[in-house]
Amino acid sequence: MNATITNFIASLPQLISGYSPITNQSVWLFDSFSIAEQSQIVTSLCNPSTLPGNDKFDLFWYLSETFVLDDTIESQIEKCIAGYGRNSLNSYFQYRPNPMTYLYSNPFTPGARRTLSQVSSSEFIQTLDYVCGRPFTWQYTKNQTLEVAQYLQSGILQSLSDGIDCKNIVNFVASPLAPSSGTWFSLQGVKKQMALIYNICGDVTQSTQSLTFTFYKLNQTLSLDPVLQNSMSNCLYMRDGGIEQVYSDFAGWPTDDLVLTWYASRSLWTQLDIIDFLISGWVLEFGIRFTVADMTKVVGVYINFTDYLGLPTSLASDELQKYLYWYDSTDRLSMDVTGGMNVLWFNSQNTSMQIRAIQTLCNDASFSPHSGFNLVTLIWQFIRDSSVRHEIQNCPKVTRDNRMDFYIEFYVYLGLCFIDLGMLAAFVYLVWKYDNTIESKRVLSPFNIGFAVVVLSTLGLNIVYMCYWQLYLSLRILDDSTIMEAGFYYVLSYFFPAVWKFSYLYVSYIRSKTLLKRVWPRWADLIGILCYISVIPFILPIAFSIPEIIGISGFTPTRTWAVQTASEIVLLILDIILLTAFVKYVTRINADAGDSKSDHFEAIAKYGTAASGACLLLCVVALMRPFIETYLPTRYEILTGSVTATIFLMHVVSGTLLLMKWRLVSRKEWSSRGTGTTERRTREVSTGYNSAKNSRKSAQPESTNGIQSQSGMMSSKVAANNTLVG
């Protein structure tokens, strides 16, 4: 094997993988080899160590369609493919691409000329017009385009070649404002003119701005037909639209004139992508219930429109037929195709066939519970018959989920409920023991009411999440009633945090109001006002979530998250203010050491600092949720973990406030015991002194006023001295 053949074999895989649109020497080099040399190349490519079996399919398809191979070479390729398995040869022929695929990939090849010689006269003209009208597809220059067109027409009947006006087409596309181009363009029919406009519109090397100027000058010079003017406007409006963007905007009317203009001006490969998007069911993601018949009709309109313009349609028709073959031959949902194809097929069946398809899926081992659930979730929104929904609900494979993380979440919230009940019991005990006394009738004090609401709101939130996870553990596919139940939980998931936030700020402010006046005398009242009016941003997420679940236009999860984020920012700012005040006071404790109230405020400041610090961390975690939703939408474990962490920090804050309550009332009891002992000893001393004095008065004459005054002074001294001792 000579070096030239060896080098060609080494470069061939790279040549095929890119299939360069510009004909290079490798193409013509293979064509120049003798049959014996081509046989050596096929033998080398057939070697198992050269390439995997599937890659060999691509290479041999390429060789067969790019070159005109001798029958012995074709037979050698078939024997090579057959050696890889019993069904390999059938697969090779069954999945062989349409020869026109290779022609439009690189029209300057022997195989392309052979393919073109075998098509109908109308398709021949369409293909030549396309090659001449869109040279930018292959990055051809004007001269290269004319050379390719001449090569493809060699050996063709003269009468057929006379119908090709490649030179004028190329001149117009390259320089549409040239006088000669304008003159020729004005002599064409409206249909031909539209096709040329779409050709120019499809030139991605031209900016929209330059194209706008070109169309303006053409219309100004030639006074174009209103139909052409409308086509130009549609082209400029739609030319930058991507597939998903266009069908997001036009999902309800996919055959609108704007969409037709957009489709006709796309390259052949983009047109095939559009057909795939429609007929494989991806368009269903925009929420409209289409059937196979609907999509076939839409694609048919596209093909007829391009055919009317004289643009190629064979690849589009072939692509449609491949899909229709599967839709017509299947009687069940399949793991071998996309979810969109399954949904589109399912939408096209009658009720009895849909029920049978669900039963088959439920018993089909090829569908795992996870894949079955994902597929049924796609189907569910388009089901119209309640009996079909009932059949899905009766399939445990897709409606039950034994995922451990679901159970973990459920039991985490169950555990937090017990913590809430424990905090509530401890709080009731403290109130009963220390606030429900003869000296202190403060059971319904503002702090007690606020803290009770704090604990009850976290308890309510935990119950909501328990019910939510229990709902999805028992029934993952929600019917109308359970959708309402889930929506109710959704609203409550915003209600209880709003109540907790306001109650926390209320309790923090009530307990630290005097401390705030010591730290910021001028701003303490303003801080209180801000804490009270914070209820407004806190209730906004609730106000947005209700119309969202009802389905009112304009209310979306994104907007609800936005106002929820705003409420978290408000809580964060106010919490930072309180935290700053507590920290400032703690740093000044030594200066207040002689103050009889310093211990009281020291406890408030230290526990307040801890609670505010935990709340600060809570806000940071809560503010991460929009970023998780945006940048990690499929990482559900991260999202649920952040929600759980937020609720756990709410309990840390509540527990810290409870410890503050315990510390304050226990110190109050200690102080009251000390005061009671002092008063009792004072009364005992005073009683003893008065009794002695009365005894002396009965035995002695009355003293003078001066002596009485002195005795009173002494009595005061004795009492005072005993008080200090006590």
* Gyration radius, rounded: 43 Å
Number of domains: 6
Distance between the termini: 117 Å
Q: What level of helicity do the residues show?
A: over 70%
| Gross morphology | elongated
Here the CATH topology of the largest domain equals Rhopdopsin 7-helix transmembrane proteins
Find the CATH superfamily of the largest domain: Rhodopsin 7-helix transmembrane proteins
**In CATH terms, what is the architecture of the largest domain?**
Up-down Bundle
Report the sheet-strand fraction. under 5%
CATH C-level class of the largest domain is Mainly Alpha
Biased composition (Polar residues): 685-715
Keywords: Membrane, Transmembrane, Transmembrane helix
Region (Disordered): 673-715
Transmembrane segments: 410-432, 444-468, 488-507, 527-546, 566-586, 607-628, 640-660
Description:
By secondary structure, the chain is mostly helical. It has six domains: about 5-95; about 190-240, no CATH class; about 240-330, no CATH class; about 340-400, no CATH class; about 405-665, Rhopdopsin 7-helix transmembrane proteins (Up-down Bundle), CATH 1.20.1070.10; about 675-695 and about 705-725, no CATH class. It is built from 36 helices and no strands. It has helices at about 5-20, 25-30, 35-45, 55-65, 70-80, 90-95, 100-105, 110-115, 120-135, 140-155, 160, 165-175, 180-185, 190-200, 210-220, 225-240, 245-250, 255-265, 270-280, 290-310, 315-330, 340-345, 350-365, 370-380, 385-395, 395-400, 405-435, 445-475, 480-520, 525-535, 535-550, 555-585, 600-625, 625-630, 635-700, 705-725. Helix 14 runs parallel beside helix 16 (about 225-240), helix 22 (about 340-345) packs across helix 24 and helix 33 (about 600-625) runs antiparallel to helix 35. The longest helix is centred in the last third of the chain and has 64 residues, at about 635-700. The model is unreliable at about 20-25 and about 670-725 (pLDDT under 50).
